[in-house]
Backbone:
């Protein structure tokens, strides 16, 4: 049983049937729509108290038709961690990190792909394909393996080594492509007819948004249904930012929120690939493809996002903004966060912290408002980017000199 009523084109509102396989409409993404009025009448928020502490606990706002079909690796609710020391460094007295690095496969990509693979299986699909520059390939491969579906993964040849290895480790047919993620996508299109595969690329099917939406539902529940003043989110394809904004709208409509104030959404990118920031600054609703995209934050290396207008709409409706950080800056902030809080902060999230620093400086973030930053992946997956040269030590050691040395 589900409360889904239909799919809706995000670009022109066209209604489509949710029980048939749908991808995009007019080459733009689809929303999953629910009977929110019925949910408001029939479902009491307190029912959640009796449910499993996982992303699947919000079943009325989920597109899954039969709970028995859920493909899961144990997606626990991710912790919302108060960060006093890092907050002090940034000038924020109420800083929280929602730590998604603890999810299966070490990134929040598991939320979207667990949902997409679940729905793919419910719809009778058996062969999945994805272009990826980072964590999505491993997550898709893992859930496909779990579901017994065939997984094909195409990635740029400079994709981080861990991401290459994990796709293969989870049994996918993984290939390297000389080019960028968009070249991988173009290559996949040439195989469509022969392979008959289903493309689970970012926003090219409607269900990854619904999986990532659970970040926003969890955040609301963990904050006693009062949302923070601001959310900083590392934005590549934008699924998470779009999903959370959708979640907040749905929660407001069904009357579960304690306050009508919704957070300002900040889309954070890397200076080497900042198409959303460029469009935001120009006041445009659609982004143009970012030339020569380069950044160590591989999850942000998305030069052209098919959901650009959905990201920009959410950012503007919420009263937030889009801003970018340099690679050097984002790596420094990721390392600082790790050292101050013991959290495995990924380079992508380093961009959010660098942006937070700037936003505090020009008064866009209030030092006393609650601010939530999403740590979307585990630092351990970025060995090349976070590599350090440790000093060597050998006998005899001058211990007192060593003790005096600062950090
Ligand atoms: C994919 C990814 C992102 C970007 O996520 P979107 O929701 O597609 O914008 C950010 N951080 C990490 C670690 C990622 O893997």
Residues:
């Amino acid at each position: 049983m589900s409360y889904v009523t239909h799919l809706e084109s995000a670009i022109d509102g066209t209604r489509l049937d949710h029980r048939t396989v749908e991808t995009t409409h007019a080459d733009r993404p689809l929303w999953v729509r629910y009977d929110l009025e019925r949910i408001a009448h029939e479902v009491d928020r307190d029912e959640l108290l009796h449910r499993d502490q996982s992303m699947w606990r919000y079943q009325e706002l989920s597109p899954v038709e039969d709970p028995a079909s859920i493909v899961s690796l144990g997606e626990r609710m991710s912790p919302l961690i108060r960060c006093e020391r890092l907050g002090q460094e940034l000038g924020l007295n109420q800083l929280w990190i929602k730590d998604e690095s603890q999810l299966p496969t070490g990134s929040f990509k598991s939320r979207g792909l667990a949902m997409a693979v679940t729905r793919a299986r419910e719809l009778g699909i058996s062969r999945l394909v994805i272009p990826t520059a980072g964590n999505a390939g491993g997550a898709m491969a893992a859930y496909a393996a779990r579901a017994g579906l065939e997984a094909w993964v195409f990635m740029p040849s400079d994709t981080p080594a861990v991401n290459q290895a994990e796709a293969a480790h989870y049994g996918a047919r993984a290939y390297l492509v000389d080019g960028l993620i968009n070249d991988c996508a173009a290559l996949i299109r040439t195989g469509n007819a022969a392979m008959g595969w289903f493309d689970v690329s970012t926003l090219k099917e409607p269900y990854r948004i619904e999986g990532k939406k659970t970040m926003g539902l969890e955040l609301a529940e963990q904050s006693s249904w009062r949302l923070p003043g601001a959310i900083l989110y590392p934005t590549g394809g934008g699924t998470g930012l779009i999903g959370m904004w959708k979640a907040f709208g749905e929660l407001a409509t069904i009357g579960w929120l304690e306050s009508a104030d919704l957070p300002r959404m900040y889309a954070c990118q890397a200076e080497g690939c900042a198409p959303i920031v460029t469009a935001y600054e120009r006041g445009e609703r659609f982004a143009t493809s970012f030339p020569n995209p380069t950044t160590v934050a591989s999850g942000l290396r998305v030069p052209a996002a098919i959901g650009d207008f959905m990201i920009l709409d959410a950012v503007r409706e919420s009263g937030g903004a889009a801003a970018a950080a340099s690679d050097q800056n984002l790596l420094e902030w990721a390392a600082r966060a790790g050292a101050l809080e013991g959290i495995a902060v990924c380079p992508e999230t380093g961009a959010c912290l660098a942006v937070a620093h700037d936003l505090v400086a020009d008064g866009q973030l209030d030092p006393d408002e609650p601010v939530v930053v999403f740590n979307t992946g585990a630092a351990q997956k970025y060995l090349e980017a976070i590599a350090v040269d440790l000093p060597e030590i050998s006998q005899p050691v001058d211990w007192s000199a060593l003790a005096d040395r600062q950090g």
The pocket of pyridoxal-5'-phosphate is lined by residues 107, 109, 134-136, 202, 234-240, 299, 346, 348, 376-377 (CB under 6 Å). The longest helix spans residues 207-222. The chain is about 40% helix and 15% strand.
